[in-house]
Amino acid sequence: MPTKTKKRGNNEGSIYKRKDGLWCGQITIGRDENGRQKRQYFYGKTRQEVADKIAKALNDLANGIYVDPARMLVKDWLNTWLWEYKKQTLRPSTFQDYESLINNHIVPSIGHYKLKDLRPEHLQALYNSKHESGLSLSTIKHIHVILHSALDQALKNGLVVRNVSEATTLPKAKTKKEIRVLTLEEQKRFVAALEGERLKPAFLLALASGVRLGELLVLKWDCVNLKEGTITIKRSLRRIKTYDKSLPTKTMLAFQEPKTAAGIRTIPVPPGDLSRILCFHINSVYCRAVIYCNYIF
Fold it and tell me: CA–CA separation, 276 vs 282, rounded Å?
């Protein structure tokens, strides 16, 4: 028999430990159309975890912001999770990527389900269909990361009884895509075609170093070691949505640091015209970037 604690006061239900070791609690959240009491159950590994969930739900009820989990749709929870739980912790570019994946891939497929009714097969069908349509395995993995994190938070909030994303299997790549690189002859033709091009130094530097466009556009002198013949990648540039209606534009260019320490790297550049290339590129391209961007680090 489960061991119950002392009954709580008005509307506060009880907390008890089940036979399987999981703690369970419940509160009354109102009455249905027939006048019967509606109860919300909360689960956790410890009594305190359940007590915290109940306290939050009671506070939300008192402030009129409580949402009945029985009615919450997947799309509504994803929106709440993204803006209330992730907005302050994600880099602007990552937040934009999350929003795009949610709106373009997740919500159209499973957004209409009630959160409490979401099952592993719903997510599995989503992953499989995206794989069959040609979406990259990397993007499907990002979709899974979003769903796993959002459902994990829903579990903590007592909105679901388990994280159904843990019972799914990600598709495997059928064949490894071969990277296409320019041959020596193609490189010569490319360099020859740059004659008279204002941004020739930038193209030459990209060809010699292999850096990404966003990294190339924000090179500064503190990234350059002419003596050693190297450049160090410390930051990148990307266009992101502003989400601020008071601003004159819907997007802005933002400077940001690499996500991980591995993103900060030093790359050797062939000597020869290194000094001339860097002088021209950094003094022209970077200055223009600073002038036209909102500088945020």
Answer: 10
Same domain, 19 and 90: no
Q: Please give the chain's pLDDT, 297 residues, in tens.
A: 444 444 444 444 579 998 888 888 888 877 766 777 778 888 888 999 888 888 888 888 887 777 777 788 999 999 989 998 898 889 888 999 999 999 999 999 999 999 999 999 999 999 999 999 999 999 999 999 999 999 999 988 878 889 999 999 999 877 677 778 888 899 889 889 988 888 787 788 888 778 888 888 877 778 888 788 888 888 888 788 887 777 787 877 777 777 777 778 888 876 655 555 555 455 444 444 433 333 332
Burial class (CB within 10 angstroms; exposed 0-12, middle 13-18, buried 19+) of 293:
middle
Claim to verify: residue 158 and residue 198 sit in the same structural domain: no
Structural domain span for residue 24: 3-62
Cβ-based neighbour number of residue 130 at 10 Å:
19
What predicted TM-score, i.e. pTM, was given to this entire model?
Answer: 0.63
271 Cβ contact partners less than 8 Å away, ≥ 6 residues apart = 229
